[in-house]
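Progress against Task 2.4 (sequence-to-structure conversion) is shown through the following example record, which the project officer requested during the mid-term review.
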Amino acid sequence: MKYRMYSLVLRQLNPIQKGVQTTHAAIEYANTYFKTAEYQSWSNFDKTLIMLDGGTYQEMMKIFETLETSRCKYQFFEEEDLNNMVTSLVFIADERVWDKVAYPDFDPDFAEPHLEVDD
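Structure tokens generated for the chain above:
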């Protein structure tokens, strides 16, 4: 199984800030989910990180609310210098989500949650 990490970043930031905020959120994700099989596979083999425009702060909050109610593992970063505003949200998706040729009928609502890696 192949994985990609996606970052949704606040639109108003300049390109360098977007990269920094994505990195902060990715580190928060690693701190929280480092034992999951998906993170281990992504960090050891795939390493693809896709940074996307998350829109305005209000749009980012809608995305945040959607992630809150989903089964998707995600993490975010709140920038202290921007009044603790959420500046980046990250999550990992496996190839069933993005490879519609190989998995045309995949429904993420019925996917099994990812398991922890044994120590």
